[in-house]
Automatic annotation (TrEMBL):
Gene3D superfamilies: P-loop containing nucleotide triphosphate hydrolases (3.40.50.300). PROSITE patterns: ABC_TRANSPORTER_1, ABC_TRANSPORTER_2. Residues 6-233 form the ABC transporter domain. This is Bacitracin ABC transporter ATP-binding protein. Pfam families: ABC_tran. Keywords: ATP-binding, Nucleotide-binding, Transport. The keyword Transport applies. PANTHER family: ABC TRANSPORTER, ATP-BINDING PROTEIN (PTHR43335). GO terms for molecular function: ATP binding; ATP hydrolysis activity. Belongs to the ABC transporter superfamily.
Amino acid sequence: MKPFIIQTHNLNFYFKDFKALSEVNLQVPQGSIFGFLGPNGAGKTTTIRILLDLFHAKPGEIELFGTNYNQSRNEILQRVGALIENPSIYKHLSGRQNLEIIRRMVSAPKSRIDEVLEIVRLRDNADKKAKNYSLGMCQRLGLAAALLTDPDLLILDEPTNGLDPSGIIEMRELIIRLNKEHGKTIFLSSHILSEIEKLATDVAIIDGGRILYQGKLDGLHGDAQSMELKIELDSTEDAANIIRSLNYTISEVNGRSINLPIERKSDIAKINKALVEAGVEVYGLQSSAETLESIFLNITKKLN
């Protein structure tokens, strides 16, 4: 069994009287791509700030590399790189000059600049001013900065936020290479569930400051023991009201179809009967293995 590179022990955190995190126990295996999922306000950003010691946890509540921050803060932070949403970049300077400023701050060797530029595939554009970079290039420059100290752990908060499809693919491929070829453990917070599904080996779902699921991505699909039902019909509005009255959670209403997670095949007959008896014309019902998005919505019960 691989050791845990991040562990939290009954982590609690308050903003005055508001309890933002409650008994959070994270276990991030070394060498994993760990997907951290949750709706807005669930506690993801608060957790990340605690992991980076920007918010301070109580002694014993958090360990990185098996050590508490209060024991060896500087040594821990030297082994951690972070990219939090949009990186801070001096637009009037080149990519190389931006990295040089950060290199001096973290005391990395000068040769490391060309190494990280090669890793993030920015070497050909290193001497262009950052104001001429695309958003995807800026994100990769921010990731290059996070790699200057050659960290063992990368903490990435919404790294594909705002990127176009080609930028998302570039970032996805880069994250996989950093994990597979460079041996980085990656803690990845994202609301783009399809990206987590393509990247993560392990996941945790947080809502209301509590961890609702944690484990292997395959285990999440297995534990769900449910399917996704797609219903084609003549009136989605009437049908949606009927389905909700039966205490089902609708994941998507799209044109003349409704998607929702179900736990057993008998649910199909139950829903179909209720719709037909209410006079709704049902054109088709199709079930399939449940997607990560449907599982997420079913677990958090946030969408009604």
